[in-house]
Amino acid sequence: MTQHVLGVKEFPIQQFMLFPEHPGTPNTVRSVSMRSSLAGVSGATPTEEMNGAGNLMDFLDEPFPDVGTYEDFHTIDWLREKSRDTDRHRKITSKSKESIWELIKSLLDAWSGWVVMLLIGLLSGTLAGVIDLAVDWMTDLKEGVCLSAFWYSHEQCCWTSNETTFDDRDKCPQWQKWAELMTGHAEGAGAYVLNYFLYILWALLFSFLAVSLVRVFAPYACGSGIPEIKTILSGFIIRGYLGKWTLLIKTVTLVLAVSSGLSLGKEGPLVHVACCCGNLFCSLFSKYSKNEGKRREVLSAAAAAGVSVAFGAPIGGVLFSLEEVSYYFPLKTLWRSFFAALVAAFTLRSINPFGNSRLVLFYVEYHTPWYMAELVPFILLGVFGGLWGTLFIRANIAWCRRRKTTQLGKYPVLEVIAVTGITAVLAYPNPYTRRSTSELISELFNDCGALESSQLCDYINNPNMSRPVDDIPDRPAGPGVYTALWQLALALIFKIVITIFTFGMKIPSGLFIPSMAVGAIAGRIVGIAVEQMAYHHHDWIIFKNWCRPGADCVTPGLYAMVGAAACLGGVTRMTVSLVVIMFELTGGLEYIVPLMAAAVTSKWVADAFGKEGIYESHIQLNGYPYLDVRDEFTHRTLATDVMRPRRNDPPLAVLTQDSTTVEDVETLIKDTDYNGFPVVVSRESERLIGFVQRRDLTLAIKNARQKQDGVVSSSVVYFTEDAPQLPASNPQPLKLRRILNLSPFTVTDHTPMETVVDIFRKLGLRQRCHVSLCLRRRLLGIITKKDVLRHMAQMMNQDPESIMFN
Amino acid sequence: MTQHVLGVKEFPIQQFMLFPEHPGTPNTVRSVSMRSSLAGVSGATPTEEMNGAGNLMDFLDEPFPDVGTYEDFHTIDWLREKSRDTDRHRKITSKSKESIWELIKSLLDAWSGWVVMLLIGLLSGTLAGVIDLAVDWMTDLKEGVCLSAFWYSHEQCCWTSNETTFDDRDKCPQWQKWAELMTGHAEGAGAYVLNYFLYILWALLFSFLAVSLVRVFAPYACGSGIPEIKTILSGFIIRGYLGKWTLLIKTVTLVLAVSSGLSLGKEGPLVHVACCCGNLFCSLFSKYSKNEGKRREVLSAAAAAGVSVAFGAPIGGVLFSLEEVSYYFPLKTLWRSFFAALVAAFTLRSINPFGNSRLVLFYVEYHTPWYMAELVPFILLGVFGGLWGTLFIRANIAWCRRRKTTQLGKYPVLEVIAVTGITAVLAYPNPYTRRSTSELISELFNDCGALESSQLCDYINNPNMSRPVDDIPDRPAGPGVYTALWQLALALIFKIVITIFTFGMKIPSGLFIPSMAVGAIAGRIVGIAVEQMAYHHHDWIIFKNWCRPGADCVTPGLYAMVGAAACLGGVTRMTVSLVVIMFELTGGLEYIVPLMAAAVTSKWVADAFGKEGIYESHIQLNGYPYLDVRDEFTHRTLATDVMRPRRNDPPLAVLTQDSTTVEDVETLIKDTDYNGFPVVVSRESERLIGFVQRRDLTLAIKNARQKQDGVVSSSVVYFTEDAPQLPASNPQPLKLRRILNLSPFTVTDHTPMETVVDIFRKLGLRQRCHVSLCLRRRLLGIITKKDVLRHMAQMMNQDPESIMFN
Q: What is the C-alpha R_g of chain B?
């Protein structure tokens, strides 16, 4: 069994060197050395002379502009980023001893991490608050308007009302439905149809605006964003994905999409928004903007802040980032994430969008403990959650693949309009789907108190019974509850079907809320069923021990919560972070066991049908080069089976240290599309001395041609420490040792792939090369991250061509 | 800045190969090849023939008994353990397709991890409950006895009493102090002296028993255990440290030590006890007992269960294990730790040792929010905590070093008796030190309710004021509070001094409770001061905004809690887990900001004086080979500066693949004390083919001499795939390819040490070797974990000789 390293949270290597454990048969290497030159080791130009230890560091000094940056859709080199940061830090520390000003600068640098966290917390908290307020207002706008101030939501409008009970408050005179406002009639078939029509119209308007904005201004703003953020955090570059435009457009369109009543949530997109904030603030500090590794530390923390504001659960947010999103998660990031998540949560609380001073999205308080026997329905809910997760992932991926491959994908606006139309038409008649999904979940989670006026709490009260506020015994269900059950069952089917088609459309769409809604509906139905069974059959053995007549044994709201956790777990395969988020919602350790039982069951059931959660499935669908830490690699293949070139492939493209001309290099760059090239001593010995990046090579040659006199196509490129003193008639040599990585990673060809995969996950080299160990120090081949992914996919019988990027 | 990888949580390499990036000067290698032999590649004995891919796996099949196990005080090879587990798993999976019985066995195997977790949770929860009950009873035994049933503690004794108020209950007639029982007088100087005397006597008896038991039966049961567990989890073998005897003796002596009234807690030792449980249950399943890597996964989870029962904080326990204790923490372990921690917490709750159905050790409920201005005293408490942490660590380490190096260390029993005597003599007169430390902390944390009768709540009430139960306005302090303040100040000084001398004695001693007590006392004093200031100076600008007359603005109990967090943070440098544990105690997100402010300040202040927490300091003091993930390595040295042999050292001891005799090998093993030897092709070419462990070599030769005919001292040892066909007159060859590791780790000599340290932390190879890259494929030298630690210590100007083990 391979061990699942905690979200690997370490440097992934991108490429790999390989050397044979045995003297192997000679392997032809396509060397571009066209001229044989007697590279003397003496005669260095004094200006270029370096001592051995300094070489690598000089390489990090970025001798040419842009050397050390990455191209779009390429993977970063974690170890290089780290070593650049260490170098930068070293410089600052040594400078800080020189003057007070430098000391202050070094202190500012040390604190910049915390400043970035503070800013991320403040901005993402503020944005979340604004989004909440706007969504509230616009959701209600679909039904009516506040006469006293049109920018008030239904709830805010009626705050000032004089009605005291909750029920009456809902019908305060300041708030008017559209039909009432337009025709003066609040009731009747005409009013209903008019309201229905306007509801659909508003929904279509919102969703049209959302999809148009996304298409025109920021195509990256669509979807949940979590699959892409996972990929970015694992070291991939997607330029613009976390840009300012994406931030702005995603915030606006998220409000529109959620308000349109589509079956989607704001949690995933909020993580994306928070990461955009993180990226924005990174650009303020060169420490983060110039180092892709450090930037990813900030982004991990930003993701935590995103979940923190989405649910009001800072600890859960940090664990979510740790468990689900992040790839490299050092202890320092843990602490900073926590800080960012807390700042964000408190900023949100200060804005107080829910008007109740509560931090959490669904605040619940239960008054009854749970009993052992209830574990049976809880585990059944877990099974349901696992099945739902499997069904949803399979159906959604199938639909998304269809969208990608057929005509359907060409009309994203029409698709969104159509789905919104269907959603609105079907949702309006059912009171449980008409309202916003988070309101629905909130009501389902709620325990029926004495003052509750909801249809779900329509129980028949015993008139002789005194009614304490909290501890209400189980009662027989009234007609309202039965109606509610039917409506909920219909809502369940509707939600299950529509969510499959909604997730993946070209608008911001989160998955947490719809998944939780499905679970909460199922859970509440089960809860009411158990409650009524317990009430009507006190004498059954299972109820006898814990449910005396007149006691409050069953809390249907708890079932809803357990169901929500189960369904969310089935879809995302979150475990610890899910339970912690739920724990933060209830605030009591009391209910951790039911939640855990359901979450574990759901994960096991779902895992039995397929190991991948929805995010991993979408990563695979999109072909991102993501090396999942949870994929177990248990095959007995060796490095030699995976390395390139294969037996019948053309030989490996390498450079020689002192016999390649500029022209040769340019030809090689033009003819191949490799990310970099190993440098060997000579064509004959094929001994590896280092690895050079394609991008660095291109930039260095371009720079030299422009700025350095005498560098022409026939100039020899030297990777040695010293270039030979050439006669003046010869073209000037080009010395490129500074862009050479002198410590590439090597393994023998007999190394099990298991170890190779492990090293790829845990170390962050991008350089690739392999060196023969015996007789001749030959390069046997190269293993890149792409090779590893392709091999793993082959081993798992998946489509190897789905990995598109290198 | 080096990144702190989350508790590294990955495989650390133990040793390392090195090869030069350049053709270096020839380096003499002390080869033990005394005979030159023409090792033919043909002529393999058919029985020994293996295919290339199978080699490594065959090596894992443990060809000889004990091959693949480790000696005491050696470090494990994480990658080898992992690869063995993968192999085992692969076997079970392939077998499971054969029959239903094998399928059931494979399912049982897959579930054994969860079973172990369940058992650990149950046993550690039970033990914690028993310890709590026993400590309660024995602590009270020092003062008196219950007449109705001598095995009742004071509180249990008075439960059945008829007195209703809390104050009277304390003085129930069934409970008699010793003086009252013996002389019949409860009051007066004589009774006081007699009680005093008996208190000291009991304390001495308990501590004498504790230290004697530890000395006679289980020397490893002393101390907190966390430094050693950290070291064990990082891959070190300390046989018996987690054994059955240690478990039994530590449990018993922990009760005795805590009851004796010494300034120590049970939290650290509980982690040790839980880990012993983990180790115990590991031995039930060969999956865990035979694999040191898998065993460490279980131990990480057990540590989480230990903290979970110590504080009643399961999430905090998991985070503690993650942040503070564990080294390799895969996602699977996260989830299992959580399960174990929950089971343990619920087992403890079922035992209900505190008699209040509460899970947490210090349950608190505050009724007032905190105000922004209060952050100033909170941060001051953080500074105090940091200073206390620094003082404590320095003084304690100095004292422990003194104990190790001087005569003092030879009389552990006397030392314990002396410290107990002093503690008891000084503690009895002060009511705040006389009682158990956890009771003290509990009282200090408490908010003064209306029914509180404690001296700390002796405020002057306004007679005209109606007294609501919860929301009591600030009141002037009465004489009781002033007396309490003096006593607390004395208690603070006493605790600070005595804890320094207590921690590290030869009895089980935890550090959490004494640290928290120091912080809680300081915090409460500050809290009362602020409260009285706010009451008497309503008109000061800082109080004006938030503290109107008659309002309840300041909660001194919250200050105590913040102080406790600050001091604990200063000593242990915990951050997130500390805040989460505190959050679980209060159960409200409300107070996270004050706690975090104090914890961060305390960590920063303490870090300014020295990066190491108390556990790291003790690890260093004891010279354990622990590669701390939080040590930043920012020096510019290269692998070549660290490798052995150095320039003037004797050459590297290597074996040749086909020209070494059994006698040569035995001589080499006798003459050197290396953990293993590189195997090269021949003395001339010095090309590396693999690495062989000393232990495996010894075992293999011993085994061959006993069982294989014809193997004598002059037999040639072959590490090649095939041994040549020798004439019958020659001694039989010994084929040892199966114990050869064919994929040792190599780096070039120009690799920065930063990268090497990183690789050591993140991968788990134990093999060492280095190979020259150019011209000749030579081994340049070896870097072992020991070398790395020594180098890091040198770079930090620490005592390099303190690393004792290899």
A: 31
The partner residue sitting opposite B575, judged by closest CB among A335, A592, A688, is: A335
Residue B20 has pLDDT above 70, yes or no: no
Task: Categorize the per-residue pLDDT at B805 as very low, low, confident or very high, splitting at 50, 70 and 90.
Answer: very low
CA B335 to chain centre: 20
The phi, psi pair for B657, rounded to 5°, reads -75, -25
- From the list A367, A365, A342, A345, the residue with the least C-alpha distance to A354 is A345
- Give A759's contacts in chain B (Cβ within 8 Å): 763
Q: Which residues pair with A734 in a beta bridge?
A: A717
For the question of an ipTM over 0.85, the answer is no
Residue A7 CB contacts under 8 Å (≥ 6 apart), including other chains = A322, A323, A324, A325, A326, A327, A329, A629, B331
Q: Is there a contact between B702 and A792 (Cβ–Cβ < 8 Å)?
A: no
Separation between Cα atoms, residue A673 and residue A695, nearest integer Å? 11
Name which CATH class applies to A639-796: alpha beta
A676-680 vs A652-656, strand pairing mode: parallel
How far is C-alpha B412 from the geometric centre of its chain's CA atoms?
23
The answer for residues whose C-beta is within 8 angstroms of residue B255's C-beta and 6 or more apart is: B131, B134, B135, B138
Residues of chain B positioned with their CB less than 8 A from the CB of A328 = 3, 5
Q: Which of A118, A507, A132 is nearest to A277 (CA)?
A: A118
- Fold match flag (B122-351 vs B372-406+470-480+503-618): yes
Cβ B753 vs Cβ B787: under 8 Å: no
CA distance B461 to chain A (A): 32
Cα–Cα distance for residue pair B192/B177, rounded to 1 Å: 10
A805 min Cα distance to partner chain B (Å):
27
Write down the mean pLDDT value for chain A. 77
Residue type, B126: T
Tokens of A622: 């999109």
* CATH 3.30.470.20 for the B122-351 domain, yes or no: no
Which residue among B328, B576, B755 places its CB closest to the CB of A335?
A: B576
Distance CA A300, CA A304 (A): 7
Of residues B21, B690, B746, nearest to A689 (C-beta): B21
Domain boundaries along the sequence of chain A = 122-351, 372-406+470-480+503-618, 639-796
Share of chain A above pLDDT 90, in %: 22
The hierarchical CATH code for the domain B372-406+470-480+503-618 is 1.10.3080.10
> Angle CA(B163)–CA(B164)–CA(B170) in degrees, nearest 5?
60
Average pLDDT, chain B: 77
Q: Can you tell me the mean pLDDT for B370-393?
A: 91
The answer to whether residues B251 and B128 touch, using CB atoms and an 8 Å cutoff, is no
pLDDT at B18: 42
- DSSP, collapsed to helix, strand or coil, labels residue B556 as helix
Per the CB < 8 Å rule, is B758 touching A759? Answer: no
Q: For residue A591, what pLDDT band results from cuts at 50, 70 and 90?
A: confident
Lowest model confidence (mean pLDDT) among A23-32, A485-494, B226-235, B440-449: A23-32
| pLDDT computed for residue B384 by the predictor | 95
Per-residue confidence (pLDDT) for residue A14, from 0 to 100? 37
Task: Tell me which amino acid residue B263 is.
Answer: S
- pLDDT one-digit tens code per residue, B472-508: 667 777 888 888 899 999 999 999 999 999 998 889 9
State whether residue B526 is helix, strand or coil: helix
Q: Is B44 exposed, middle or buried (0-12, 13-18, 19+ CB in 10 A)?
A: middle
pLDDT of residue A792: 67
Check CB contact under 8 Å for B743 and A759. Answer: no
Residue B637: helix, strand or coil by DSSP?
coil
DSSP A733: P
Q: How many CB pairs (< 8 A) connect A and B?
A: 235
Q: Do the chains contact at B83 and A3, CB–CB below 8 Å?
A: no
- A769: tokens are 């090369």
